[in-house]
């Protein structure tokens, strides 16, 4: 076992954090650069420091995963979702059960909630929004965004679904009541099933190919028949056909 493997084993043992499914070169680079910043010389010392100080552990998690998100990220794909995919799903089921997997600070599930409220208000839709990072989930649950963070939201939606006060935007309860935020690790925890739509966008970048494939297979199993998986804009699924998916638009994969 080399030093890096030792570090992963200790992370798993001490913090229940399993990084085996992540690409080693990227992870190693990130971990080492943080250690340099914190002036920590060995993995052993790093583990010790994280055990003693929750703040250092939080910093490690922050550094490890890139949490950047945006409202209406890659707008053209949200248009495809609105114009083609959701109408298609509604032929199958009036009330959509949706999962935003790796939802970060909430921009993705709130974008979805705005589209549902605005264009498909009849159904009793629900969104499960999950992430394994408690800190981003806390921000998502609060639903408070700066003017800069909210800049991607079209003006009519801002007026209708946000309350502006003291220079911040707060999400209105008409959106929050559609969403349940929950801590969930995609590489460890069990998956719910019977989803009409699963969004997993910009999450798998650091996963090994093997981990990605396992994950996509699990998403496949969690979808109902005719359900759709919506991926990020650089994340075409190479083994889509092998898994059983049919491509219905770029970055949208349907379970037949
Ligand atoms: C770049 S953000 C993407 C946010 C949003 N989906 C989007 O496209 O804007 C990636 C998120 O994936 C989460 N993530 C990474 N690995 C995860 C895992 N194993 N289980 C759950 N969430 C994970 C990170 O915590 C981070 O919040």
Structural class: alpha/beta
Largest sheet: 7 strands, mixed
> Count of DSSP E strands?
10
Low-confidence stretches: none
Overall spatial form = globular
State the separation between the terminal residues, measured CA to CA. Answer: 44 Å
SSE order, one letter for each helix or strand: HHHHHEHEHEHEEHEEHEHEE
Folded structure, characterized:
With 256 residues, the chain is α/β, with parallel strands linked by helices. The protein folds into two domains: 3-64, no CATH class; 75-254, Vaccinia Virus protein VP39 (Rossmann fold), CATH 3.40.50.150. The protein is built from eleven helices and ten strands. The strands form two sheets. It has a seven-stranded mixed beta sheet with strand order 6-2-1-7-8-10-9. Helix 10 (209-222) links the parallel strand 7 (195-200) and strand 8. The relative contact order is 0.13. S-adenosylmethionine binds at residues 65-70, 73, 102-104, 107-108, 131-133, 136, 185-187, 201-203, 232.
């Amino acid at each position: 076992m080399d030093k890096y493997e030792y570090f992963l084993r200790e992370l798993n043992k001490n913090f229940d954090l399993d990084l085996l499914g992540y690409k080693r070169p990227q992870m190693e680079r990130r971990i080492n650069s943080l250690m340099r910043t914190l002036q920590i010389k060995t993995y052993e010392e790093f583990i010790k420091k994280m055990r003693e100080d929750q703040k250092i552990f939080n910093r490690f998690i922050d550094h490890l995963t890139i949490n950047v998100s945006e409202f209406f990220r890659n707008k053209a794909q949200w248009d495809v979702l609105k114009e083609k995919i959701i109408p298609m799903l509604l032929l199958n089921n009036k009330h959509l059960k949706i999962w935003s997997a790796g939802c970060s600070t909430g921009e993705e599930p709130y974008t979805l909630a705005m589209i549902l409220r605005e264009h498909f208000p009849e159904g009793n839709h629900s969104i499960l929004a999950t992430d394994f990072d408690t800190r981003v989930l806390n921000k998502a649950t609060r639903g408070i965004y700066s003017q800069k963070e909210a800049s991607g939201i079209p003006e009519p939606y801002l007026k209708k679904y946000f309350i502006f006060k003291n220079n911040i935007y707060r999400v209105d309860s008409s959106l929050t009541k559609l969403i349940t935020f929950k801590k969930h690790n995609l590489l460890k925890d069990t998956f719910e099933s019977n989803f009409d739509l699963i969004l997993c966008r910009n999450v798998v970048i650091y996963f090994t190919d093997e981990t990605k494939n396992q994950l996509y297979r699990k998403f496949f199993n969690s979808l109902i028949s005719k359900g759709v998986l919506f991926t990020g804009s650089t994340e075409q699924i190479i083994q889509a056909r092998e898994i059983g998916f049919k491509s219905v638009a770029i970055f949208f994969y349907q379970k037949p």
